[in-house]
Design goal:
Distance between the termini of chain B: 70 Å
Strand content of chain B: 5-15%
Largest sheet of chain A: none
Number of helices of chain A: 3
Order of helices and strands of chain A: HHH
Largest sheet of chain B: 8 strands, mixed
Strand order of the largest sheet of chain B: 1-2-4-3-5-6-9-10
Order of helices and strands of chain B: HEEEHEHEHEHHHHHHHEEEHEHH
Mean pLDDT of chain A: 83
Shape of chain B: globular
Radius of gyration of chain B: 22 Å
Helix content of chain B: 40-55%
Number of domains of chain A: 2
Strand content of chain A: under 5%
Number of strands of chain A: 0
Structural class of chain B: alpha/beta
Low-confidence stretches of chain A: 1-5, 119-128
Number of helices of chain B: 14
Number of strands of chain B: 10
Structural class of chain A: mainly alpha
Radius of gyration of chain A: 34 Å
Low-confidence stretches of chain B: none
Shape of chain A: extended
Oligomer: heterodimer
Chain lengths: ~130, ~350
């Protein structure tokens, strides 16, 4: 946007911003990286997060309870029902994958068995 | 408009208006990423295994297929960012039979999934399918970030499963230095309670993880990135690249509560892997049992996985053929930055090619 930063161009606000940024950005960045790498920052963020979780938990639980009641009264599946169904589907997929693995294995074994005699010298003419 | 100065002012205002529109478009739209053609060959729950459509005739391809495994809390699209600048495209052109394991976005029903499940349930099944499709009993694996952690755990627990070559990119494995970087300082602080986060939220929201990653370099990520875009808004190459990267960065996915709890408590805090005390499904993970050839790529300016978290493990693994490759750049930049095609990708290709035929 602004290539010549030496000349103050009032109609190029981004140029002014860039000049200001270039003067301060590096120092600001280093200062912030140092700040976030302190134990005090870790302590502060941990405490804030903990506070947020503690204060919001009752509301989340209340909303969940109300929603469950509403959905049950409407004869609709609740969150827990959907989660339970999804878990069952995942388990079915696992079993299907087991079956596919066994099928692959037996197909491979069958291929090996049929390919085996052909490679033996002197037996090729005996194949149908 | 006869006055040339007034015309200049008008042109400048017009240009600013255009730039503002472009800027707004870039912030609010998604670029087309991950466009290399691929087929889904296996699915399990949210996970998918893709096989990229080969571009090199079979007789000229490397014999051993390569499996890409990305982190569990990001989309893997960064490996195939955009045509002309894609690691996937690069490796396909060099004759690799390429597979990608996409873990998918976990739902509330997956909140208990742990590294045990990813390493010993999902990954071995995907590998079985890879072997079945490729017809090869051997394979190479490239893991990035937590994908590298999972790859390492798998390689140590299943050393005889056909893994020939293991490429680890910015692998967080050794957490002995509790002052190395912001993440470890925050998460090992007594005020940080991973159990409480998981108990309250189930899965850890992608936005929370993204905020944490960005907060490690707050000025660069929250201000500098956008100012840099504004400065280069007339440069189509920079704009295209920024748009693609921003599209990937914005697409956050949650991390399962079980894996998050394990990462913070057992790895970041207790450093169990390096101490030889990590167990997955009651199987002890012994790094000395890892025997695949290993290339570990370290980003010298990595603020997410500082180099010391990847280096120490090399002395503990049992592999005979192991190499550390250091690249200037950050956690993502070494693979997706403008220099990746000249530095990181050719080195990975050369290292693998020498061990793949």
């Amino acid at each position: 946007m602004s290539e010549n930063n030496d000349v103050l161009n009032l109609f190029d606000p981004t140029g002014m911003l860039k000049s200001m940024r270039d003067a301060n950005m590096d120092a600001w960045s280093k200062m912030m990286i140092q700040l976030v790498n302190t134990d005090a920052y870790g302590q502060a963020t941990g405490t804030m997060l903990d506070g947020w979780l503690t204060s919001s938990a009752p509301f989340r639980k209340m909303i969940e309870k109300v929603m469950t009641q509403v959905l049950t009264n409407l004869n609709m599946p609740t969150r827990a029902d959907v989660i339970s169904l999804a878990e069952r589907l995942a388990n079915i997929e696992l079993r299907l994958d087991d079956l596919e693995a066994k099928l692959d294995e037996s197909q491979r074994a069958a291929r090996k068995a049929t390919a085996g005699p052909k490679t033996k010298p002197g037996t090729a003419d005996k194949q149908p | 408009m006869g006055n040339p100065k007034l015309a200049d002012v008008y042109a400048e205002l017009h240009k600013i208006a255009d730039s503002t529109r472009t800027f707004q478009r870039l912030l609010t739209t998604d670029a087309k990423i991950a466009q290399t053609p691929k087929d889904v060959i296996w699915t399990l729950n949210k996970a998918k295994l893709y096989r990229y459509v080969p571009v090199v005739p079979e007789e000229k391809r490397h014999k051993i297929p390569l499996l890409l495994v990305f982190a569990i809390m990001n989309r893997p699209h960064v490996l195939d960012l955009r045509p002309g600048h894609s690691f996937v495209e690069y490796m396909l052109k060099r004759g690799y039979d390429l597979y990608l394991l996409d873990w998918g976005a976990p739902g509330p029903e997956d909140k208990n999934l742990k590294f045990d499940d990813y390493t010993l349930e999902y990954l071995p099944r995907a590998i079985r399918k890879l072997k079945s499709v490729s017809g090869s009993d051997e394979f190479s694996m490239l893991g990035w970030c937590l994908g590298a952690l999972i790859g390492t755990l798998y390689a140590a627990l299943r050393p005889d499963d056909g893994l020939k070559n293991l490429v680890l990119l910015t692998a967080p494995l050794d957490f002995s230095d509790k002052t190395a970087g912001g993440f470890i300082r925050w998460t090992t602080n007594e005020a940080f309670n991973a159990d409480k986060i998981v108990e309250n939220l189930g899965n850890v929201p992608g936005e929370l993880i993204d905020y944490g990653a960005k907060a490690l370099k707050p000025v660069e990520n929250f201000v500098g990135s956008y100012l840099n875009l504004w400065d280069n808004i007339d440069n189509p190459k920079v704009v295209e690249s920024w748009h693609a990267m921003n599209t990937w960065v914005r697409d956050n996915i949650p991390m399962t509560g079980g894996a998050y709890r394990q990462l913070i408590n057992e790895l970041y805090r207790e450093n169990r892997l390096m101490a030889g005390k990590l167990e997955l499904r009651n199987e002890p993970v012994q790094l000395s049992k890892l025997k695949a050839n290993v290339l570990t790529v370290i980003a010298e300016n990595d603020h997410i996985t500082p180099p010391c978290q990847s280096e120490g493990v090399m002395a503990k693994i049992g592999s005979q053929d192991k190499e550390v490759f250091r690249v200037r750049g950050g956690h993502i930049g070494i693979m997706a930055g403008s220099g990746a095609e000249k530095n990181t990708w050719p080195h990975i290709d050369n290292w693998l090619a020498a061990r793949t035929d």
